[in-house]
Amino acid sequence: MENLQSTTTLANGVKMPWLGLGVYKVEDGQEVVDSVKYAIKAGYKSIDTAKIYENEEGVGQAIKESGVSREELFVTSKVWNADQGYDTTLQAFETSLNKLGLEYLDLYLIHWPVQGKYKDTWKALEKLYKDGKIRAIGVSNFQVHHLEDLIADAEVKPMVNQIEFHPLLTQTEVREYCKKQGIQVEAWSPLAQGELLDNEVLTQIAEKHGKSTAQVILRWDLQNEVVTIPKSTKEHRIIQNADVFDFELNAEEVEKINALNQNHRVGPDPDNFDF
Fold it and tell me: Mind telling me which residues the site (Lowers pKa of active site Tyr) is annotated on (predicted)?
């Protein structure tokens, strides 16, 4: 993990950047176009969107206007809950691809484990993967029991599990299971939607390293071997979020941050959601 272009190698050999840009709640149009272009200009290679974010068109426009070749980038999108099921997932994928204006995706995820639907959805992802339309496939918000259930019937194992992960929710059980299965964990909401930025433990560690609290959290993600995709629309913040490759947390600092865990979610519970 030397710089923003550093990658982890997924189970199928595809290389995925350790740090990328998330665009959740970034408005389609100029806001998302600018955000993605700032990131690419700053050296980011990975952009994470989803159908439900309603900004795939803007992401695609920014990619086109960035002047960076498609092969250099790693683009993720996700199938939304209402589109889950075999045929509907195939259609949803084509719609996302068209909106992005791309010929393939680097990663496509099942957004949430919708009971009774996610296995058929996964079969559609396997087909798209085998057809060469997606370089890697995975899931999001899957707990251990969801993964066990999915893997039992899967021909291709998920390569990524994107979960809510931050110092207040360390998800040890899920991460340990994924590690055993060769599934790369990725963090959404790594900064707990701002809840941690004034935390005393983190502030002290940040001061010692001459870094911001956000940078310390993102560095902690990376040292836990978790891919991270912080969101911002401000150019200076996008640049700052990526400035985490020139320092290292020692073992004691990592443990102090791990100990902040309260199993506290800022997002929905994957075992109890109704959307």
Answer: 78
The answer to whether the annotation marks 145 as part of a ligand binding site is: no
- Report d(CA 229, CA 28) in Å as an integer: 18
In angstroms, the CA 171 to CA 233 distance is: 28
Average pLDDT, the chain: 98
Q: Which tokens sit at 44?
A: 């980011």
- Domain 7-194+226-233, CATH among 3.40.50.11690, 3.30.420.40, 3.40.720.10, 3.20.20.100: 3.20.20.100
Tens digits of residue pLDDT in 151-187: 999 999 999 999 999 999 999 999 999 999 999 999 9
**Contact between 121 and 85 (Cβ < 8 Å):** yes
Question: 38, 44, 53, 108: which is the annotated catalytic residue?
Answer: 53
**177 catalytically annotated:** no
CB 245: neighbour CB atoms within 10 A? 16
Residue-wise pLDDT for 95-154, tens only, equals: 999 999 999 999 999 999 999 999 999 999 999 999 999 999 999 999 999 999 999 999
The angle at the Cα of 234, spanning 167 to 65, to the nearest 5 degrees, equals: 120
Cα distance between residue 99 and residue 190, in whole Å: 27
Q: At what angle do helices 56-66 and 30-41 cross, to 10 degrees?
A: 40
Judged on CB neighbours under 10 Å (0-12, 13-18, 19+), 115 is exposed
- Structure-token pair, residue 166: 């931050």
State if pTM tops 0.90: yes
Virtual torsion, Cα 147, 265, 137, 77, nearest 10 deg: 150
